[in-house]
Each structure stands twice: as structure tokens, then as C-alpha cells.
Design a protein that fits this description.
By secondary structure, this protein is an alpha/beta fold. The protein has five helices and ten strands; from the N terminus they run αβαβββαβαβββαββ. The protein has a single domain, classed as YbaK protein. Helices cover about 25% and strands about 30% of the residues. The strands form two sheets. Strands 1, 2, 3, 5, 6, 7, 8 and 9 form an eight-stranded mixed sheet that branches. A two-stranded antiparallel ribbon has the order 4-10. It is globular.
């Protein structure tokens, strides 16, 4: 499948340099990092949450878990995990479980973890389970623009 059309058009429109890194099929972001031989701490994964106001994409390192209570406090919202079936309409050009860690082209609010601000390079799902998008860390942070950020995750145990 390759890079999702919506994502590719958005990245091309912004002019941010990126490349696509193919890897063998993997079901999770952490395994994708291992398969592609990149540091899992530089692999950004999206965790889709929702409430009655809509969706929120939490972007965290693949090595971490979202601290939901902390995130809810920061946003002043009561969130729960969104189901993959619900997300089909929003991310129609992406495979289930391979949502890119850039929500802006899909009209989704984003909050990202400050741990990613320390990365020289950032990788994330391209919309399938066999390709990653690679950006320089500064370009990833630029794409995050005015999105909220903070310490919203902790290392997975």
C-alpha cells in the first residue's frame, strides 16, 4: 500500500523533507522499529482517544504508554480509547492499526509527548504495516506546529 494518500499530499504540500522506509510486515509500532532497525524511542505512535467533543490523537514514543489521567487533567477532558472501527471513516486510506502520528491532515486534534522533542530523527507509520515515514526531529516538531505537548506518557513496563 505504501504511504497513505492523505499523508503524502499533506507532507508534499508542507515541503518538509521526508523519506519512506519499507520494512517487513509488523503489527505494532514497537515491532516496526525493531524490524526497521531504528531506535524504538524515535518511533512515534498514535493512540486515538475520544470523548463527546471528538477525537484526540496522543503521539508518544513506541516505548511508552499514555498516562491517561495526566493527559485528561492537562486537556480538561474525560477520554477513552477509540475503537478501530470508529476510526475507519477518519483514516479511510490507512490500514487498521497503522494510523500515522500526524493528525493534522485528517482534521484530528493532536497532543504530543515532550520525549519526542529530544529526538534527532522521528519515524512513524505511513498508513500501512510495511512502511515508515522518516523525518528529521526538527521537521517533526515543525509539523506539530501549535499542537499541545507535555509529558503525557511513561515508559511501558
Amino acid at each position: 500500500m505504501g504511504i497513505a494518500i492523505t499523508l503524502r499530499e499533506y507532507l508534499d504540500q508542507t515541503g518538509v523533507p521526508y523519506d519512506v522506509l519499507p520494512h517487513p510486515y509488523t503489527p505494532t509500532s514497537r515491532r516496526a522499529a525493531e524490524s526497521a532497525h531504528i531506535p524504538p524511542s524515535q518511533m512515534a505512535k498514535s493512540v486515538m482517544l475520544e470523548d463527546d467533543r471528538g477525537y484526540v490523537m496522543a503521539v508518544v514514543p513506541a516505548t511508552n504508554r499514555v498516562e491517561l489521567a495526566n493527559l485528561e487533567k492537562q486537556l480538561g477532558r474525560r477520554l477513552m480509547l477509540a475503537t478501530e472501527r470508529e476510526l475507519d471513516d477518519v483514516f479511510g486510506d490507512c490500514a487498521k492499526g497503522a494510523i500515522p502520528a500526524i493528525g493534522q491532515p485528517y482534521g484530528v486534534d493532536v497532543v504530543w509527548d515532550d520525549a519526542l522533542s529530544e529526538c534527532s530523527d522521528v519515524y512513524f507509520e505511513a498508513g500501512d504495516h510495511e512502511d515508515l515515514v522518516h523525518l528529521r526531529g526538527k521537521d517533526f516538531r515543525s509539523l506539530m506546529g501549535q499542537a499541545r505537548h507535555g509529558r503525557i506518557s511513561r515508559p511501558a513496563g
